[in-house]
Amino acid sequence: MVARKTIVRYATACLLVCCFVFSGQQSFAQRDAVPTDEAIIAEGEKLFNEYQCNSCHNVVGKKVGPALAGVYDRRDLDWIYSWVKNSQAMIAAGDPQATALWNEYKPSAMTPYDLENDQILAIMAYVRNVEENPPADKNTVTGGGEEGPAGGSGVPESYLNIIVAALIVVLVLILIVLAIIIGVLKKYLQDKENISEEDKEIVNEKFSLVAFVKSPTVIGIVTFLVIALAAKNVIDGLYTIGVQQGYAPKQPIAFSHKLHAGEYEIACQYCHTGVEIGKSANIPSVNICMNCHSSIKTDSPEIQKLYAAQESGEPIEWVRIHNLPDLAYFNHSQHVKVGGVECQTCHGEIQEMEVVKQHAPLTMGWCIDCHRNTSLNTQGNGYYDRLVELHNQNSATPMNVADIGGLECAKCHY
Amino acid sequence: MLKNKPSKDMIQKLKVSIPMLALALACGCAAKGDYTGLEYAPQMYHSVPYEPLTQIKDEEAGKWLSNREDEKGEFYNSNPNNPYAQNVRKPVEGTVRRNPNDMLPYRLEKDDITAAAAIENPFPASEEIIAEGRRLYTQFCQHCHGASGKGDGKAGVAYAGVPSYTAPAQRNLSQGHIFHVITHGIRRMGAHGSQISEDKRWKIARYVQTLQQQ
Question: Coil, helix or strand for B33?
């Protein structure tokens, strides 16, 4: 009986010691369990790039997922293995660490990866290597990259300013010298005795500004210029009546086409979804903005307006820029999908506009001009075969929009 | 003589002020900033029927030339019977838009991704379909997923975390899975079902397949 009790006591003690020792090992020896062998590190780097870990993780610093540096200190290696293989299963099983991670980073879940334990360990080895021996050349490389274009862009601006200033100084000096020469010559001539009366008059002549301005020639020229300019202005101004070219209203959200369409190269059709299927190109609804802005620039006050609109359901009232007169009909799909016209042909370099303005005059003359000059692409469209044949019998120019009724009044006015 | 003098002054003033006035008028016609510019025949420019993308809630707008029976301004264009007096309405709940390919509406919910993965693409992997899929891919996917599907589009790099189609976890995803993900989104990718019609989504899936296999 006594012996039995002792055994139990010994066993418990051993178990406790073991637990202590192992837990101690786990918290200290984890980093050391990650190999520092160069071949393994190279293998890890290859895997890191192949599996694109860096699209979600940085070694140092948070990205979509947490930073990888020191993960071997924070977690058990076995935990890391099973997390990489199937993180969602661990969350579903209620693992406390996994659940905490999910709560911090959802809805971003880590994709399950079909990797072996030693492959995951190799990736850890690569991460450890990057953490412990941060690539020293990285900073110098980026530094050099920043200096490069500045140095290579020809003469720096400060030099140009100096050159201009020097030129101005030289010009002023020349003027002063000329003035001095005139003065000296005048004095010389005045002092001279044997000079005719006529020449004396010329020497002593004073320039009178009033007389110059009042001379009929000057008045005539100025009057003509004023009238001509005024007439030109009036005629130009009359032509702008009913033409909204240049209209650039302030929008409820400071949306930049330059950033979205220019810098990030998002296609026009991504947001203006109606452009190939209907009359209007359409203004995107909030859910399209939220495809990115659910997690991009969430702190910006402009983006907060999107969240407010989504919450309340109240539409964002964008101001319409292109107000085609009600008397004319225009269809986007007919031009963009059928005609293959680029958006920029009518809307200008939208991808460079911070604030969008009406680029084209949208006058009838402007429409007609394009209809007269645009030839049709009838390639592979059997409907046009006979038409093209008939056209070519009577005309030397290729068939254009005007030839198939592009100038008919009722095409646009009905 | 004395009587005539002021009138001469007047003529002198008129001589100066008429061109000035004309100048000011002419300069004031052009559209700029928030100003749409002077309109010729505004009654022919502004729509009488509800114009879906033009919303003028101000009942006084264009009152000076209005001869409308409801005594509102000529430019007023809003439908007070709609929520927020909008001219556009959402489609009625439960209605289905007809499509040229007579496709039935896609009814699987976001969580039904396993069932979705088993659905076959109704379009063959023909050259034409793939070319059309490629065209649509450049419009709707390329800015994030990149031209070759490596997740290296300009917007994708800024967004971070866009996987490559050739990554081992993505390489073998089925057509039904791709279609479902475009429709409802997955993880951080948003739902694109409202932007891209069903037939277009299937065509994009065909092109994505070629990117998976590269």
Answer: strand
